[in-house]
Amino acid sequence: xxxxxEERPQMSVEDFEELVHRAPETLRNQLEFLNxxxxxxxxxxxxxxxxxxxLLRQCMQQRPELALYPEQGLKxxxxxxxxxxxxxxxxxxxHFVGQVGEWASPEGVLMAVEVTSCDRDADQRDRVEKPSxxxxxxxxxxxxxxxxxxxVIVHAEPKGGTYRSVIRRSFGETVELPDPVGFALDTEKxxxxxx
Length: 195
Fold this sequence. Notes:
About 25% of the residues lie in helices and about 35% in strands. By secondary structure, the chain is of the alpha+beta class.
């Protein structure tokens, strides 16, 4: 059966990587290739950056042997080859050293982190496409900081391209990040950013 026009990739992964390689640096870090489609992540605002920095500090305090790598490019080979740029990828210190290029293997990444941006594509990208892509890539935990609903959503137990466990907590509540992350995240500070 021939895939419909909507199901066909817009370009090959190789063409996408060549496009990223030739793009100006100001655009390069905004390009993603999810489910065969070229995506442009919106430029994050100051609150987005503050939330990512807060998460980075929480991870360093709770698990000093790990690092939350911001804007990490990951190969997420779902049913169609893909490339996603996570707002954060939690992995052991120096985990990505030695990997060639800006798109790293997701193997060994313990958690992918996304903070929603204030744009029209956030729903599809952060709540549908990325959880599916990260689960298919075998990343054990996906943490979504959802600014629209003022909650953190923890996806865990990836199997067959989906996360079987989804836990939602409002900003201000504590949420357990399951193994292999293995620590509690007190989200009280996020209430300040939501105001």
